[in-house]
Amino acid sequence: MSRIAYVNGQYVQHSEAGVHIEDRGYQFADGVYEVCEIARDNIMDMTRHLDRLGRSLSELKIAWPMDRRALQAVIREVVRRNRVHNGLVYLQVTRGVARRDHVFPSADTTPSLVITAKRTSPEASAARAAKGIKIITVPENRWERVDIKSVGLLPNVLARQQAKEQGAQEAWFVDPDGTVKEGAATNAWIVTKDGVLVTRTAESGILRGITRTTIFDVAKKLGLKIEERGFSVDEAKSAKEAFITAATTVVMPVIDIDGVTVANGHPGTITLSLREAFFEIAEKTPSC
Ligand code: PDD
User: Fold this and answer.
1) Domain for residue 288, yes or no?
2) Helix H segments across 151-248?
3) Cα separation of 140 and 205, whole Å?
4) Which domain holds residue 268?
5) Which of 129, 148, 232, 236 is most buried (most C-beta within 10 Å)?
């Protein structure tokens, strides 16, 4: 079955889909994006993802590409046309196409909108979660506005590639004082010996992950306490459990940090209970 992409008002063959060479996303990374998980024919946490999209757009002074309700309908249509039952939907909005100039183009420039969907394997993800993943740490080298979900992801790309080359699946950005910020494309968490979940405050220095936000709801339901504070790489290495969250991974246990085994080297029970409860608690929008 061929894949379909939505590009600026049209549903086109994925293999032939393209944007103009002077799209500002292509030339300046002048755009934002969202990734939503699709699980069992439901788009997860769509409201929160669209809220965050609105915030990213407004921080960069890019207009909504269309009315929010219409956008929601197009997202569902892309998922439906690609018959994605479990997978990911990707949405990107850029400032549009204009003759190359750093300053914003004229106010009547239409933002570009691209939406794609792809299938992923729940079985493969479950197998990864049953085993746990390895993390490396890298020095923070990103700009300060990582709260904006911008398509400018070069440090993230390089960090994730370095992780892969070192036999790990994710890299954590770390401040000079040793405090963990977040992963290349995930938020970072630990569980203390007392069973308290710890994650850095989202006020600055990280992206306010939607999965992270929903984990607050999940933790409440499970009666688990969360502390929003920084934690060091050393604290993570000696934690009871560690895990990452993102739309692409949901909750994924971490069993190794920079070659140091976390706890007994197996996914933690609290982490796995959060992973299991996530689907029940997250908002579900039927995709068809
Ligand atoms: N990344 N931090 C960063 C830097 C991210 O890029 C992401 C998501 C997250 C987690 O956010 P959420 O829970 O809303 O997915 C945290 C997406 C999935 C990506 O770039 O593919």
Assistant:
1) no
2) 154-165, 210-222, 233-237
3) 10
4) 125-283
5) 236
For residue 1, is pLDDT > 90? no
The model carries a pTM of: 0.98
Residues 93 and 130 in one domain: no
Atom of ligand 1 nearest to the CA of 210: 14
Q: Which of 61, 134, 149, 225 is catalytic?
A: 149
196-209 pLDDT per residue, tens:
999 999 998 999 99
Q: Is there a catalytic annotation at residue 193?
A: no
Query: Look-up: residue for tokens 């982490």?
Result: 271
Structural tokens at position 97:
């196409």
**What is the whole-number distance in angstroms between the Cα of residue 8 and the centre of ligand 1?**
24
Looking at the domain assignment, is residue 262 inside a domain? yes
DSSP category for residue 97: B
**DSSP-derived 3-state class of residue 85:** coil
